[in-house]
Amino acid sequence: MNFLDRIFGRSSKSASAAKERLQFVLAHDRSDISPETLDILKDEIVKVISKHVEIDLEQVEVTVSRSGAIHRLVANIPVLNTRPPRSPQRQAPHPPSRQARAARTKT
Amino acid sequence: MPGQVVTITSGKGGVGKTTATANLGVALARRGVRVACLDADIGLRNLDVVLGLENRIVYDLVDVVEGRAKLRQALIKDKRLPELQLLPAAQKRDKTAVTDKQMIKLCDDLRKEFDFVLIDSPAGIEGGFKYSVAPSDQVVVVVTPEVSSVRDADRVIGLVEAMEKPAPRLIINRMRAAMVKRGEMLATADVLEILSIELLGIVPEDEAIITSTNKGHPVALEDHSPAGSAFTRIARRMMGEDVPFQVLDDTNGLLDRFSRLLRR
User: Which residues of A touch B262 (CB under 8 A)?
Assistant: First the structure.
């Protein structure tokens, strides 16, 4: 603390308050991911992952979570089959794929 | 070589966009480059009064865009500085009078005749901001070391980047070194860290800005005021010179040295 501050007993540093408040408010301002953007993100993530593994399209969740100043994009994507989907349309209905997984565990 | 179009913007009003545009225009023109200052604040023009050229307006930006006047007829030559000219905004129209496309065309014409085209953007992030940034090669964001100004600057920086312009540079205006030293004002380093942006210059708070604006005689016309010389240094940087930053909030003042001595 500055010598003058000690004499006058000043301890409130408004500049550091300004900095902290700004960092917090800007983290919030900057994190504005619109629902449309989230939908697009979800579709594209699903497309990429579906090329390599079979996923449960009904259960896919993409959300933004916030803890303090940190924002996370959280994707919850249940995998049905660790091999790429065989059908060209990549949208195998769920029951067969569950059977496929069961069959695989048996072998 | 075609001229550079530089847009001076801020988001928040009242932080010194017009003062910065006028003084950078003056400082650049004093160094012998041809400068056009363009007031893009249609309906709320002020660059003319800050420059002291308000009595010489015949035609304005909207007259040029709508074809009632030639660019040459509308540009006002500053009698103090042969290299400086002003294209005033229309006062009795609004921001819908001009489109992005028209501004781009206008600036393409100005680029042929000037080394620098400085656009004084209106406050806000609506149409006026967009048509001011659309034609620019570089964007300069003016900020004061206050929370509201820094927050709005952050928003503007994001919008400029979304418009696929090069990263803007920052002028910190109305800096008060004594307050920074007391820890009661955001320091240069704080503002740069928060906005993660390149610094173009720091301008100290200076009463001379008020008196010079009263007279329509920008501080940068002379060398003696702190703000005027700060604008001159920024102008030199804009011309590509490597000018060191005068850190206004360092802790090497007499008082600091004195207090450090006492602490030993």
Answer: 3
